[in-house]
Amino acid sequence: MSILQQQGILQDNSNMYINQIQVLKDMINTLQSENTALMVGKTAINSSDGGPDAVINVALQPTGQPSHLLRNPTPPPQCDRSAYPKVRFWTEKQFKEWKKTAEGTKKAEENTTVYLENENSEQLCAERAGKIMSMMRDIWHDLRIMKKVFRAKLANTYTELTLYKDSWKTNQLAKANYPSWKQNWFTKKSGNAVPSKHKAAKVETADIIQGSEGKCRKMEPADVPDSIDDNEEIKDKLPVNKGLGPSTGGATQRSPSPSPDSAGKFYDH
Hints:
about 270 residues; mainly alpha; elongated
């Protein structure tokens, strides 16, 4: 065996171990999140005095151990393109160009996640793809916990945000102000754009604008779909995928539905 072959084997083993470490870290984060949710429920039940809102009020309180989604997540490993020469769709542009071909059009219609591949450019089996979908749905449920923390922190700090029913005022504030804040801080095409100091100050102080006589000027809310109301539940039932590659268990696999937030508010940064 040549030295180059030995180096190639060592590189493959190194990449495998890196991926395994990342999987273990993700599992730890998931377990921490599940434990947090269980502790919230346990505290709510134990603290309930029988009133109709007791469990809800306790559940809205932030816990001592926040969800891992509220902390800085472990950044994904930055893989070297040259170490995976067989990967076909390293960039979105490569996938879109392939999708325009006759082969790509046909396969994309049969399988909405055809772009998911392993290091040998092999399509993921149904079992592997199913695990990805399952974790994705779990994360979506965690996002609902974040919304509860958002409401609770505001209401516990400003009593004016308790004088309403069904959290509608807090929801309205979020709908009217989050899109412009997100646009300035996260949705720049470069991916790393940082707003200027002037723009940042404008965004951070946009909640309350005082006039010359101390009166608040009226703000024009953004035209945003009502997509973060309590009545909108995250759906576990996803559309059936026509094909996710070789099946290992014969189970029907489902492809991901669009994110619960139709405006793309919480899932792309």
